[in-house]
Write a structure and sequence with these properties.
- About 25% of the residues lie in helices and about 25% in strands.
- The protein is α/β, with parallel strands linked by helices.
- It has a single domain, classed as Purple Acid Phosphatase, chain A, domain 2 (4-Layer Sandwich).
- It starts with a strand and ends with a strand.
- The relative contact order is 0.17.
């Protein structure tokens, strides 16, 4: 049996700090073989930089995935091509820089991961996530022993639909983007682990990681405000998955939350 920890959207400095503080011990205590993390909000809550990506990889993350904020930081479109173990969403236009998947290994077991972005209520230009996932699975099934799909999407219906579409063809379909951990972690009938959202890694005394007063004010009067990253009640949130090495099926999935 192998263990994978998929860490949900790392938000700003608080999210980065709790990963640096907790991950090494967590890997050791839980005997975790693989750690994958979405870090598209790691730089001040929007995007990522080369320095931040390297620091997260140094903290014990094996592969970094990204989402709709992938290009928010100036210069990242160049830096992404210079850093191993980082991948941008696979259903972006073909001309976008960066890798569309990563393959990591532990104990002789090869684990592939890719992200697709949803199209319901999402403004980013992206191809059909269902067709893109089908294409990526065909490409990767001979290169890896198991495949993990991150679905960075807004609508729970779209996330559930992709889970059912891929059941039995991948080891896990894990939702991100909405920052709120959901209570629907399950193993689908054909052996694929699924959850609508693994939650965020960052400050939970917030509105999706941002300062409460500013966000509430914007909802009330509609006036533009700066949404600073909040700082309180910092948690690491993710999904812990047990994988059968012989079958490449998920045997167990549970939501994992670590507080400071």
């Amino acid at each position: 049996m192998l263990k994978l920890l998929f860490i949900g959207d790392i938000v700003g400095r608080p999210g980065r700090e709790i990963v640096a503080e907790k991950l090494s011990r967590l890997r050791r205590e839980q005997a975790i073989d693989f750690v994958i993390a979405n870090a598209e909000n790691a730089a001040a809550g929007a995007g990522i930089t080369g320095a931040i990506a390297r620091s997260l990889l140094d903290s014990g993350i094996d592969a970094i995935t990204l989402g709709d904020h992938v290009w928010d930081q100036r210069g990242w479109e160049t830096e992404i091509t210079q850093i191993d173990r980082v991948c941008r969403p696979a259903n972006l236009p073909k001309g976008c820089p960066g890798w569309d998947h990563q393959i990591i290994s532990a104990r002789g077991f090869r684990l592939a991961v890719f992200t697709v972005i949803g199209r319901s209520f999402m403004a980013m230009k992206a191809d059909c996530p269902f067709a893109a996932a089908d294409r990526m699975i065909e490409q990767l099934k001979s290169q890896a022993d198991a495949i993990i799909v991150e679905f960075h999407a807004e609508a729970t219906s779209e996330k559930q639909a992709l889970g059912w579409h891929l059941d039995g063809r991948v080891t896990a379909v894990l939702g991100t983007h909405t920052h709120v951990p959901t209570a629907d972690a399950t193993i689908l009938p054909k052996g694929t682990a699924f959850i609508c959202d693994v939650g965020m890694t960052g400050p939970y005394a917030s509105v999706l990681g941002r300062d409460i007063k500013a966000v509430v004010g914007k909802f009330i009067d509609g006036m533009p405000r700066r949404f600073d990253v909040a700082t309180e009640d910092v948690r690491l949130s993710g999904a812990l998955i047990e994988i059968s090495a012989s079958m490449a099926h998920a045997e167990k999935i549970e939501l994992l939350t670590v507080r400071r």
